[in-house]
Automatic annotation (TrEMBL):
UniProt xrefs under PANTHER family: UPF0716 PROTEIN FXSA
A single cellular component GO annotation: membrane
Segments passing through the bilayer: 29-46, 79-101
Domain of life where this protein originates: Bacteria
Annotated keywords: Membrane, Transmembrane, Transmembrane helix
Signal peptide, first to last residue: none
Protein name: FxsA protein
Length: 141
C-alpha cells in the first residue's frame, strides 16, 4: 500500500521533471505546443471512443473463429490511452502510445461456434409431480 502511495506522490514530480528537462533542451514554446496537442488528441479520442468499439467488432468479424484477448480489450485500451493523452505530461503520453501498440495476445475460441457447444450438452429427463395438497409446492423427481 505504501508503494502505491509513493508512486502516486512521485508521478507528478516525475512529470514536472521531464517537462522541465525537455523544455531546457527543446524550448518552452515547443513543449507547451506538445502538451496542448496531446491534450487535444486525448479529448478527441475520448469523444470518439465509439470508433474503438467499431474497430474491435470489425476485427473480430474478419478473424472468424480466432479472437485475441488483446483485441477484445481494445476499446478499454483506447479509452485509457485517450485519458492518458488528456493528462498533461510526457510520461503519460508515452504510456498512452504503449497502450495503442497492436500487441498479439493469446487467442480465444469462439464460444458461439457449434463445435464448442457440442461438449457442453448435458442430457437428462424430468417429470413434474403435481402436489397432493394445496400447501405443498411442486417438486421435480
Amino acid at each position: 500500500m505504501r508503494a502505491i502511495l509513493l508512486l502516486l506522490l512521485l508521478y507528478p514530480l516525475l512529470e514536472i521533471a521531464t517537462l522541465v528537462t525537455l523544455a531546457h533542451h527543446l524550448g518552452g514554446g515547443v513543449v507547451f505546443l506538445l502538451v496542448v496537442a496531446s491534450s487535444l488528441l486525448g479529448i478527441w479520442m475520448l469523444r470518439n471512443q465509439k470508433l474503438g468499439a467499431l474497430l474491435t467488432l470489425s476485427s473480430v468479424l474478419r478473424q472468424g473463429q480466432q479472437v485475441s484477448l488483446y483485441s477484445l480489450l481494445w476499446p478499454l485500451r483506447y479509452a485509457l490511452s485517450g485519458l492518458l493523452f488528456a493528462i498533461p505530461g510526457i510520461l503519460s503520453d508515452l504510456l498512452a502510445i504503449l497502450l495503442l501498440l497492436p500487441f498479439k495476445g493469446p487467442t480465444l475460441q469462439n464460444v458461439a461456434s457449434p463445435a464448442g457447444m457440442a461438449d457442453d450438452v448435458i442430457e437428462g429427463e424430468f417429470s413434474r409431480v403435481e402436489p397432493k395438497g394445496q400447501d405443498q409446492p411442486p417438486r421435480l423427481h
